[in-house]
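Sanity check

After download, print the first record. It should look like this:
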Amino acid sequence: MAARVLVVDDEKDLRALLEYALGEAGLSIGGAAGGREALARIAEAAPDLVVLDLLLPDIPGLDVLKAIRRDRPALPVILLTAKGEEIDRVLGLELGADDYVVKPFSVRELVLRVKAVLRRGEAPEEAAETLRHRDLIVDGPRHQVTVGGKGIPLSPTEFRLLTTLLARRGRVQTRSMLLTEVWGLSGDLDTRTVDTHIKRLREKLGPAGAYVETVVGFGYRFQEEEG
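Expected structure tokens:
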């Protein structure tokens, strides 16, 4: 079954263009002209990914993102932002957006980004089995994470980030390495993208977030097993 993508943008022509391009890429597409319509569609039948413009006529895009993260924490979201919206872009990442594309953009780039984010929903080879560290369990095949027996809802990007670090515990992963391994096609993203996702991942993991260590001047590593 084709992955379902919801395009949320009040520009009718742009929405039609994106719907056509994504449809040609083999995806099932729906559209929404505003935030309320988008949230209603998501509540009715959640898509596999949302492409969300930050500037909407009724509800700010960031508020739509907050609602999605509250009700559908694992639903991937790609933001559409304008060049001058850097603060909103960073805030969007902090709120849990998986990726962003800056307007004006090539339609091909967006299609590639959408496919890359959808692939993050597939466990990397390193996560073919269950990974454990103390009270943290990452079940790769089931895409489930628990800490002390409590389920932790992660977005596909957060799941892949945690899996990559845990599978390579003890080894430093630079921001560039993580951008390549986790974001795939997004190697041109600002390194703050990695830092923002690490911050959010730690917050979600609670005390287990301390297992993800910062290596100043280099990047991050997952805590080694104690001898």
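If your output differs, re-run the checksum step. Summary of this record's structure: The chain has eight helices and twelve strands.
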